[in-house]
Every structure is written in structure tokens, then in C-alpha cells.
Amino acid sequence: MALVASIGQGQAGTCPYCNTTSGSKTLYPTVDMYEQHFMVNQCGECHTVYLNPPPTDVQLAQAYSEAYYGEQDQKFNSLVERVVDFFRKQRAIIISSYVPQPAKVLDIGCGNGRFLYHMLRRGNYEAHGVELPGKAAERAAQVKGIHLKLGNLNAADFPTGFFDAVTMFHVIEHLNQPRQTLQAISQILKPGGIAYISMPNIDSWQSRLFKGKWLHLDPPRHLFFLSPTHLQSEMKSLGFNLISERYFNPEYNPFGMQQSMLNLFCSKREVLFEHLKGNKQYVTGYSPANLFLQNLFFKTTFPLFMLYDAVEALFKKSATVEMVFQKQA
Ligand SMILES: [Zn+2]
To answer: Structural domain boundaries of the chain?
Structure first.
């Protein structure tokens, strides 16, 4: 998902999440796909993990260039895209189970609009999306029935208490002002409304094991990482109760393990992922045999890592988490 705008250069030593100046510690270094170096810091006060220094506008523009969405009309080749779309449909089924129709739903960072498309197909849902201008937003604009707002979400964009549900699928880590966005969600949701948020789990075993080479660290696009317990306390302070959390996730977690393992052996990060996306330019340094073996590793060990994720999930240490909050009535 690509909901991010220019990020200001924070004052040295100031936490860009909570703005305290009590100091942060450096956890580990990381290198992005373009060989740019960053440090991963953690605030001593709120414990938010963040990329330091914040990426520049130029670095972000490069990272969100066309290649991020794939060179063809879709982010992935058609088989992978069909699998991804299956999971979007599952999310629509879950949301509709929480929010009876008729209802108004907002997807922040709606990408190509396919989740909202599936919501519209489920019945009497009014579908709103927010996305930054670009290729994904152009695709969302083509989906009939979606009310699309280009740019960032502002609470003033919608009346107070307007929505029955607001969703953010792997978006919060991209935002340059995540706290303000959570506050905006609280304002535009009606009492009893649902906020569905998924994100990388910085408290995961994968994050601790692979550090700067962890797939879901995804520098420079991922700017902030709140732990699941931190997000829960933030939402509680905004008047929400956690009603469901899910850690087991075949869409994100087994591949997080596989790609992070491959990152230990490859000089560049995310080679297999880019190969699967059809990014030929990025993988030119890798022979067809090398890419074939990486692909074979992916396909043959996937069930194993899915089982492993079931274990991670038991301890809430999976690579990603989905949390459903309900605004107090
Ligand atoms: Zn902080």
C-alpha cells in the first residue's frame, strides 16, 4: 500500500512518533533495494521503531516508482495476483461479518481498489478509498462505485461519525504521521464502528532474527513500527476496544521467513520477491538457474513455513498481525 507523502526531517534525537526528546537507541543498520543505508532506531519513551534518518522525498519517490506496482497492469503476474485477490476477498468477507449492510466503509491506502470492489460485491456497502496519486489510484478510479479521494486522509474530509468501518491493510507503517491518522479514524468512525488494522509485527521472531534483512522491514517505505501492544494502547486511549487479533497469516508470514532467509545469502535484498513481481531489471545480476532455485525453495518449503507460522502465532510472534477494534458506543 502506498499512502505516504513527504516526510519532514525530524530534529535529531526527537521521536518522530511521540515527539519526546528523551532519546532513542539504535537497534541495527539496514540497506534498501537501492543500496541506501539507514539505521533502525527505537524511541526510549514510546518504544516505536523507526527508520533513521527519515528517507528523503527523492528516496521515497524512487521507492514508490512504477516498479513497486509491477511493470504490467498488475503488481504481480496473473497467478500471484489471483492469489492476492483471493485474500482481499477474504478480508471483505471478514469486514462484512462485522458490519451489517447498509454501511459506509473507508479503505485508507486502498491501492488498486480491489478490496473495495469485493466489498461492493457483497451488498449494500458505500465504498470510499483514499490513495496517493499514481498508477494504483488510477486503477482504483476505474472500479465502478468507489468514491476515491486522492492524497492523504484528513479528518475534515468526512463528517464526524460518518463511517461504519475503516480499514488500513499494511498502511500504518507507510504513514509519515501515523498518530494523526489514528486520531482521524477515531473521529470519522461512528460509535460502535470498526477499525481493522494490519501491519508488520516488530515484536515478531522474524524481526528479531533477521533484523535489517527482514522482508517486512521494507526500507525505505516502512517508516514506523508499532508493536501490537503499543497499537492496542494507542487505540484504547482513542476510545477503542480490541475485539479480535489474528497472527497466523499464509499471505504474509511464510514468505516473510523465506525471503528473509534468502536475503542472508543474496547481495541484494528481495530478489525473489522482485522476480515474482516481474521486475526483470532488478534481477539482472542473477542467473536463470539461481532464480529457478530460489523459486523452487519458495514452492517446496512453503507448507513447512506455514506450519512454522502456526507456532509463531501461538506466541503472538508471527511476522504480521491483523487487529480489529471497536469504537466504544
Ligand atoms: Zn516515541
So the answer is: 72-200+232-247+321-327
Contact present, 44 and 21 (Cβ < 8 Å): no
Q: How many angstroms separate the Cα of 304 from the Cα of each of 9, 252, 253?
A: 43, 14, 12
149 burial type by CB count under 10 A (0-12 exposed, 13-18 middle, 19+ buried): middle
pTM of the model: 0.91
Q: Which pLDDT does position 83 carry in this prediction?
A: 87
Confidence at residue 69, expressed as pLDDT on a 0 to 100 scale: 58
With a cut of 70, list the residues of the chain below it in pLDDT.
Answer: 1-12, 66-77
Query: What is the rounded distance in angstroms from the CA atom of residue 99 to the CA atom of residue 97?
Result: 6
Cell of 117: 470492489
**Would you say 239 and 327 are in contact if contact means Cβ atoms under 8 Å apart?**
yes
Q: Give residue 217 CA to ligand 1 midpoint distance, Å.
A: 18
The answer to whether the CB of 57 falls within 8 A of the CB of 241 is no
107-129: b or e for each residue (b if 16 or more CB lie within 10 Å)? bbbbbbbbbbbbbbebeebbbbb
Centre of ligand 1 from the C-alpha of residue 290, in Å: 42
Region label for 37, one of left (φ > 0), alpha (ψ between -120 and 50) or beta (otherwise): beta
> What's the gap in Å between 292 CA and the centre of ligand 1?
43
Total residue count of the chain as it appears in this document:
329
Q: What is the dihedral of CA 176, 326, 104, 3, to 10 degrees?
A: 10
Ion ligand 1: residues, CB < 5 A: 15, 17-18, 43, 45-46, 48
Is CATH 3.40.50.880 the right assignment for the domain spanning 72-200+232-247+321-327? no
pLDDT on residue 5: 38
Paired sense of beta strands 163-169 and 189-200, if any:
parallel
| DSSP at 231 | H
Which of 105, 77, 76 has its CA nearest to residue 91? 105
pLDDT (0 to 100) of residue 114: 95
- pLDDT, position 2: 40
